[in-house]
Design a protein that fits this description.
Strand content: under 5%
Largest sheet: 2 strands, antiparallel
InterPro entries: Ion_channel_UNC-93 (IPR010291), MFS_trans_sf (IPR036259), UNC-93_regulatory (IPR051951)
Pfam family, one: UNC-93
Subcellular location: Membrane
Strand order of the largest sheet: 1-8
Structural class: mainly alpha
Shape: globular
Protein name: Protein unc-93 homolog A
CATH superfamily of the largest domain: MFS general substrate transporter like domains
Radius of gyration: 26 Å
Number of helices: 16
Keywords: Glycoprotein, Membrane, Transmembrane, Transmembrane helix
CATH topology of the largest domain: Growth Hormone, Chain: A
């Protein structure tokens, strides 16, 4: 078996084991811990921590630990959340939710970075387009990963299915189910009774064991990987620049529009796991049906993920995005109109199936799109992706106990429309000015801190030492090296101090044009701005 494929499979099955546990628990939080909104509050706290983590941790951890160990360490937070459910309370679920959230952003950023590097490396090896191989790898990953929902929910349904038979759901309760649910709690009914504590412990024991196996699989079998575009890098980027890289990438106007994709992804996933499972399934059928219904979502999501990974090289991503948008738009409108009833059992499974068809587009194509458009800043790009997706989850779970379901559906409808307009705009820009992939073997990229799209070829060297608040210039030496930055700049004399200053300052200020991009500095240039190098010179 090819090493690249083997590593993709190891990552995929590691995530399968981990999210078999977490996915099952997430689907049950709003139903198991409905008292005082503990379940949805824990989920909202969790994704709030993901949001904060996305701002700070992914680039730092990935550069410090590498992708492999970032994945392994981050998985420990998910294990802590499973353990916290054994004694579920405000004092256990909230802290462990924070731990999980802090690990989630580095986990996903490292996974996306790993697959993107692996795909581009293999593509160069066999002479294929990098984006096609990356799409295929994400398709394989999400085929296996999305099946975690099948196993996690199947386990929960089989365990909770041992609960004694329930009585028929009264008609007066059915009236308040679905889009009409405004969380105006009626008296507890048989359909919303908690399973016995013994059954809950059994389920949590299975989930915890699955999480332990996931960590061991990654730690033992996953090979470390190095980005081929940093082979020449001798020193890591400064701490502060790594810390701010996530925010700095937002200067790219494409990313400013594309953040709506992960934001909507979080909103629609939050609706399915928080609202559909509680207001449609648990309300009308009972908690024992939650797992079976979510299996339908996970199955279609997994199969479509594999399909989209294969066909995207023939159809292009635009057609797939249209398919996802139309499918989810139709589902949202239908959910607004449908009144769930126990005699319409099949319909409860149709909606998660359609949701999976659309979600597979968001999962596979969003990740591949970010990997292709922001290949030079993969860690920061995927950190942004998880940040905005986490914000979507926070919003979805945050307003869960305050808004009626039909209001949440209208919000989804509006955000989906805006998202597709923003995505279409970026595709239009890409059609006019396609993103150029990094060339094989490219090892040097000098990037000015202000990241301006221009070139400087003839800055005049100076026989003068100048000290500015933006950087320090050393002159009249055969070699000048910026401390802390792997930049090697040749110098030579001489101009008079006044001539040097005037020429130097004028040309340096010319750099400060408000144009986003990358500046390639000539080897003999003496930049006013501090620079860093992504490879040796």
């Amino acid at each position: 078996m090819d090493r690249s494929l083997k590593n993709v499979l190891v990552v995929s099955f590691g995530f399968l084991l981990l999210f078999t546990a977490y996915g099952g628990l997430q689907s049950l939080q709003s139903s198991l811990y409905s008292e005082e909104g503990l379940g949805v509050t824990a989920l909202s706290t969790l994704y709030g921590a993901v949001l904060l983590s996305s701002m700070l941790l992914p680039p730092i951890l990935i550069k410090s630990l590498g992708c492999k160990w970032t994945i392994a360490v981050s998985m420990c937070g998910y294990l802590a959340f499973s353990l916290g459910n054994f004694m579920a309370s405000w004092y256990t679920l909230i802290p462990t939710s924070i731990l999980l959230g802090l690990g989630a952003a580095p986990l996903w950023a490292a996974h996306c970075t790993y697959l993107t590097i692996m795909g581009n490396t293999y593509a160069k090896k066999v002479g294929k387009l990098g984006k096609d191989v990356v799409n295929q790898y994400f398709g394989i990953f999400f085929l296996i990963f999305q099946s975690s929902g099948v196993w996690g929910n199947l386990i929960s349904s089989l365990v909770f299915g041992q609960t004694p038979s329930q009585e028929a759901i009264p008609e007066e309760q059915l009236v308040s189910c679905g889009a009409s649910d405004c969380l105006m709690a009626t008296a507890s009914t048989n359909s919303t009774q908690r399973p016995s504590q013994e059954l809950i412990y059994t389920l949590l024991g299975i989930y915890t064991g699955s999480g332990v196996l996931a960590i061991l699989l990654i730690a033992v079998f996953l090979e470390p990987i190095r980005d081929i575009h940093s082979d020449g890098e001798k020193k890591a980027l400064p701490f502060w620049s790594t810390l701010l890289s996530t925010f700095k990438l937002l200067r790219d106007k494409r990313l400013c529009l594309l953040v709506l994709l992960p934001l909507y992804s979080g909103l629609q996933q939050g609706f399915l796991s928080g609202e559909y499972t509680r207001s449609y399934v648990t309300c009308a059928l009972g908690i024992q049906f939650v797992g079976y219904v979510m299996i339908c979502f996970s199955t279609t999501d997994a199969l479509c993920s594999l399909l989209y990974g294969k066909v995207s090289q023939y159809t292009g991503r635009i057609l797939l995005y249209v398919l996802g948008a139309v499918t989810q738009l139709s589902s949202i409108i239908a959910l607004l109109l449908w009144r769930p009833h126990t005699q319409q059992l099949a319909v409860f499974f149709v909606f998660p199936g359609l949701w999976g068809v659309a979600d597979a587009v968001w999962q596979t194509q969003n990740n591949a799109l970010f990997g292709v458009l922001f290949e030079r800043n993969k860690e920061a790009a995927f950190a942004n992706y998880r940040l905005w997706e986490a914000l979507g989850f926070v919003i979805a779970f945050g307003y869960s106990t305050f808004l009626c379901v039909y209001v949440k559906l209208y919000i989804l409808l509006g955000v989906l429309t805006l998202t597709m307009v923003a995505y279409g705009t970026v595709e239009y820009w890409e059609a006019k000015n396609p993103t150029t992939p990094l060339a094989a073997g490219q090892t040097q990229q000098v990037v000015v801190e202000e990241e301006k799209q221009t070139k400087i070829h003839d800055l005049v060297p100076c026989d003068l030492e100048l000290d500015f608040n933006l950087g320090t210039f050393w002159g009249h030496e055969p070699l000048a090296e910026y401390p802390g930055e792997n930049a090697r700049l040749l110098t030579e004399p001489p101009l008079s101090p006044s001539e040097c200053f005037q020429s130097y300052l004028a040309q340096a200020l010319a750099v400060l044009q408000p144009i986003p991009g990358v500046v390639m500095i000539h080897a003999r240039a003496f930049p006013l701005l501090r620079v860093w190098v992504a490879g040796g010179s």
